[in-house]
């Protein structure tokens, strides 16, 4: 499966992501510069973590205007998979592929830690690789990871089963303990925790492996 990883000035998890998709899973992976307008034959688009454009204005606010993100929106609207992690999740909300917003953490501190998550659904490619596993542990590293949505949006997310991951112990004040959501069609996933940082056994954890295994068909 051909994977494309969007690279912005300030991205810092793009190579981590490529190590997982190409190094561990052996999938052809292309780094797509933010100014590129053509995704080519890419089947899965990943918007990685980091500090796109230095996080000026607010996280993801400038990245939303990049040509590569315009192509990513078209890719998503065609029903193809798009994964946004950390800053990538922020960008997906800014560009309108996912509802809500990511704002400053509750205590206004950058958090770098490992957190326990519940898997709310197992019937999507993103989570089918976990089988019946109910809880996983993944790293987080963010200053603006508090998920916010108004009451109506939150009700829609819950009613339509769009919440995919929840924090067991809420580290940042996210409404509903939300750590990751998908769009109504299920082909776009945004999440603050980093599965790519917990997919290689040499790093001490493989709890992120299941997400890529399900998505890439392993």
UniProtKB/TrEMBL annotation:
<dbReference type="GO" id="GO:0005524">
    <property type="term" value="F:ATP binding"/>
</dbReference>
<dbReference type="GO" id="GO:0005737">
    <property type="term" value="C:cytoplasm"/>
</dbReference>
<dbReference type="Pfam" id="PF13507">
    <property type="entry name" value="GATase_5"/>
</dbReference>
<keyword id="KW-0658">Purine biosynthesis</keyword>
<protein>
    <recommendedName>
        <fullName>Phosphoribosylformylglycinamidine synthase subunit PurQ</fullName>
        <ecNumber>6.3.5.3</ecNumber>
        <ecNumber>3.5.1.2</ecNumber>
    </recommendedName>
</protein>
<keyword id="KW-0378">Hydrolase</keyword>
<keyword id="KW-0067">ATP-binding</keyword>
<dbReference type="GO" id="GO:0004642">
    <property type="term" value="F:phosphoribosylformylglycinamidine synthase activity"/>
</dbReference>
<feature type="active site">
    <location>
        <position position="194"/>
    </location>
</feature>
<dbReference type="InterPro" id="IPR029062">
    <property type="entry name" value="Class_I_gatase-like"/>
</dbReference>
<keyword id="KW-0547">Nucleotide-binding</keyword>
<comment type="pathway">
    <text>Purine metabolism; IMP biosynthesis via de novo pathway; 5-amino-1-(5-phospho-D-ribosyl)imidazole from N(2)-formyl-N(1)-(5-phospho-D-ribosyl)glycinamide: step 1/2.</text>
</comment>
<feature type="active site" description="Nucleophile">
    <location>
        <position position="86"/>
    </location>
</feature>
<keyword id="KW-0963">Cytoplasm</keyword>
<comment type="subunit">
    <text>Part of the FGAM synthase complex composed of 1 PurL, 1 PurQ and 2 PurS subunits.</text>
</comment>
<keyword id="KW-0436">Ligase</keyword>
<dbReference type="InterPro" id="IPR010075">
    <property type="entry name" value="PRibForGlyAmidine_synth_PurQ"/>
</dbReference>
<keyword id="KW-0315">Glutamine amidotransferase</keyword>
<dbReference type="GO" id="GO:0004359">
    <property type="term" value="F:glutaminase activity"/>
</dbReference>
<feature type="active site">
    <location>
        <position position="196"/>
    </location>
</feature>
<comment type="function">
    <text>Part of the phosphoribosylformylglycinamidine synthase complex involved in the purines biosynthetic pathway. Catalyzes the ATP-dependent conversion of formylglycinamide ribonucleotide (FGAR) and glutamine to yield formylglycinamidine ribonucleotide (FGAM) and glutamate. The FGAM synthase complex is composed of three subunits. PurQ produces an ammonia molecule by converting glutamine to glutamate. PurL transfers the ammonia molecule to FGAR to form FGAM in an ATP-dependent manner.</text>
</comment>
<dbReference type="GO" id="GO:0006189">
    <property type="term" value="P:'de novo' IMP biosynthetic process"/>
</dbReference>
């Amino acid at each position: 499966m051909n994977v494309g990883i969007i690279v912005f000035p300030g991205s810092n998890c793009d190579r981590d992501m490529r190590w997982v998709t190409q190094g561990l899973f052996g999938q052809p992976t292309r780094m797509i510069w933010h100014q590129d307008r053509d995704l080519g034959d890419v089947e899965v688009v990943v918007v990685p973590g980091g500090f796109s454009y230095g996080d000026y204005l607010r996280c993801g606010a400038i990245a939303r205007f990049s040509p590569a993100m315009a192509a990513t929106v078209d890719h998503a609207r065609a029903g193809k998979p798009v994964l946004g992690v950390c800053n990538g999740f922020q960008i997906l909300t800014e560009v309108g592929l996912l509802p809500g917003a990511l704002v400053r953490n509750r205590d206004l501190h950058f958090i770098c830690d490992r957190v326990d998550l519940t898997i709310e659904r197992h019937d999507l490619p993103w989570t089918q690789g976990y089988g019946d596993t109910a809880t996983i542990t993944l790293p987080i590293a963010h200053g603006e990871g508090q998920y916010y949505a108004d009451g109506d949006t939150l009700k829609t997310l819950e009613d339509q089963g769009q919440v995919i991951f929840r924090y067991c112990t809420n580290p940042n004040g996210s409404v509903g303990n939300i750590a990751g959501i998908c769009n109504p069609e299920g082909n776009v996933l945004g999440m603050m925790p980093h599965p790519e940082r917990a997919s290689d056994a040499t790093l001490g954890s493989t709890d992120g492996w299941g997400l890529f295994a399900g998505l890439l068909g392993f």
